Amino acid sequence: MNGAAQDLYDRQIVERARNPLYAGELPVPDLQGEGRNPLCGDRTRLDITLEGHHISQIRHRTRGCALCIAAADMLAERLGGCGLEEARAVGARFSAMLVAPDDPAETTVQKAAKRIENPPEGIPSLGGMEPLMAVRFHKARIRCVELPWVALKEALAHVRV
Amino acid sequence: MNTDRTLKAAPAGKLDVQAVRAQFPILSETVHGRPFVFLDSGASAQKPAVVIDCMADAMRHQYANIHRGLYWMSERTSEAYEAVRGQVAAFLNAPSHEEIIFTRNSTEAINLVAHSLGSLMKPGQAVLISEMEHHANLIPWQMLRDRSGVELRVAPITDEGDLDMEAYGRLLEDGKVALVAMTHMSNVLGTVTPAREIADRAHEAGALVLFDGSQAAVHRRTDVQALGADFYTFTGHKLYGPTGIGVLWGRRALLDDMPPFLGGGDMISSVTFEKSTWANVPHKFEAGTPAIVETIGLGAAIRWVESIGFDAIEAHEQALTAYALEKLADVPGLKVVGAPKQRGGVISFTMADVHPHDIATLLDRNGIAVRAGQHCAEPLMRRLGLHATTRASFGVYTDTHDIDVLAETLARIRDFFV
Ligand SMILES: Cc1ncc(COP(=O)(O)O)c(C=O)c1O
Q: What is the pLDDT, as a whole number, of residue A123?
């Protein structure tokens, strides 16, 4: 494949989309949320169980492209065991990553990822989600990786921290 | 990969595709460092130099508002604008240029009929569409239904993607259908619908018939009289012309009885604060300053298409579509959606294990432009049991090399994912 696409379709993303670790549903979820993209018919549903103010487990059912499935799976991985407040903060950081202004000097994911790996103090790390950051160079696809976060937002909408 | 275009003769023979391609400046662009392979003409076609130049020339040398000025420049511009009406009438074999109404696009043309003719319909009457309509020929009728209590009926398609003519006949039986509004060619399946038969059955049941010719008018000669149509719409930008200009043709007697759609300048005969009277058709339906330059550009596009000729265009596209179907059949895991009796240059497909978004992005990185998603036909996708497809659509400039590059790249994408 051509260079920049290789960045977007990082091996980790493709592998994760093919063999998601957190796909499925939970028998008795405490929270549920759904994200839909009416333009393309993609959909993610999240099932979440809580322990106090912590997320204990997340499972997702995703009908979508490789980026969407990988994003949902990485979300589930990153947020399992997370406090609700932190989960929201990770979401905010993820969104910020997607809309970060283009740096013309920054041509590879690796360079950009450095900033993500070393976030300023007080900002939660994105954990294993760095490969997704290449999406910011593909504006048309941002919606694909946001979908699971839309579902999370819906799931958390009625929970007070 | 074979990158040498000149060595390959087009299968169609008659049309000199390379000579055609040379007239489209954009086709020599590169995308992501690759030659641009454009396979999204169904969404909007590229423009030949004559169209681009004609519009620029109009603005450089011959432009003023029309129908208003008493001066030379306005009169010449009005003539150029009105001449296109005659051209479009000939293009559609319409009985009169006065039956040609300029709109912004096909969507607006259909909305015009839905509002204007729709306002004459009564609860108890029905509009009949098909399962394979573009949203442009669905939403305006849904809105009419919700506004006026008219029933909206949907004729099913077969699994092959043809209109189910038996079911269509049954939906007409009770005589309540006032208008059949149907695509002349599906933008997803490529299905060319049997327009004459659709129209005959509609008329037997006392219904009028509108064809959405947005796709069809690009690929074959359109004769609204031979089709037995009452209304026909198309859109300039798919016909190698500019955006912002579309066409509604309607039978004079119908247009005369229909109330205006939009109100404003140019569409009136006399105005007082108490009451106004309307201009005659077509002006009754053309409120405000129209897309003057775009209309003139549409005239250039039609001239250009006619200089190539629909015999050559249709033969080329048919041969190319057959070639593409054959090539795509060899791509592992690829499934073409639908197998209609008559197909224009549109092929939707799915590929096992690879989502259309991923396909489209990876094709794009290789310079290839296709469309992925629901193609403004969400109910059709549901009917087909699909969430999204990838669509390659062809134009007069598409050649076998484009198809070869597509098929080869698809095979590599599949390897990448599987
Ligand atoms: C079958 C069909 N109908 C209607 C339209 C709408 O055309 P426009 O957006 O120019 O109004 C399209 C274009 O996508 C189409 O393919």
A: 65
The residue from B286, B306, B326 where one domain ends is: B306
Out of B33, B357, B366, closest to residue A144 by CB: B357
Residue A136 confidence (pLDDT): 83
Q: Distance (Å, rounded) from C-alpha B361 to C-alpha B358? A: 5
Task: Give pTM, 2 decimals.
Answer: 0.88
Chain A residues in contact with B388 (beta carbon < 8 A) = 40-42
The CATH number of the domain holding residue B275 is 3.40.640.10
Mutate to test the interface with B, among A16, A40, A139 (most CBs of B within 10 A): A40
Mean pLDDT on A38-64: 92
- Determine contact: A140 vs chain B, CB below 8 A: yes
Rg of chain A over Cα atoms, rounded to whole angstroms, equals 15
In a domain? residue B255: yes
| Residues ≥6 apart with Cβ < 8 Å to A64 | A37, A42, A43, A44, A72, A144, A147, B355, B357
- Domains (ranges, CATH) in chain A? 3-156 (3.90.1010.10)
The total number of structural domains that make up chain B? 2
B203 shares a domain with B130: yes
| Percent of chain B's residues with pLDDT above 70 | 97
Q: Min CA distance, B194 vs chain A (Å)? A: 29
| A137/B contact by beta carbon, under 8 A | no
Is residue B376 flagged as an active site residue? yes
Instruction: Return left, alpha or beta for B190; rule: phi > 0 is left, psi -120 to 50 is alpha, else beta.
Output: left
Among B279, B306, B333, the domain boundary falls at B306
pLDDT, mean over chain B? 94
Residue B268's pLDDT band (cuts 50, 70, 90): confident
